[in-house]
Design brief:
With about 120 residues, the chain is mainly beta. The chain has no helices and eleven strands.
Length: about 120
Amino acid sequence: LQVVITNFPAPKPLDIRVPNFPADETKGFHQVPFASTVFIERSDFKEESEPGYKRLASGQPVGLRHTGYVIELQNIVRGSSGCVERLEVTCRRADAGEKPKAFIHWVSQPLIPAQEPRRPC
């Protein structure tokens, strides 16, 4: 699911340092580009939160894993069929005093192949 960060904090993608093996950081790190457009799994978003749901929903921000940023839903953009095509969010630095309920996985647009991604409704 495409996510557009409307207030991305930099004019170009940021390089994020990610551990090769999160459980064992002694095994090294690699860089991942973090840009204003990212993609998340559809299962990491619900229009309305429900009890026990800890991922992105209206009024329920989440952290983007390894970035140090929290995103919050601002707008849902639908296609002509009514399916959610993309989300518009704002981001802010994660504060030690304000921990989101969850951190979700993401990929940045430059890592997506040139093919059109599948978009099930």
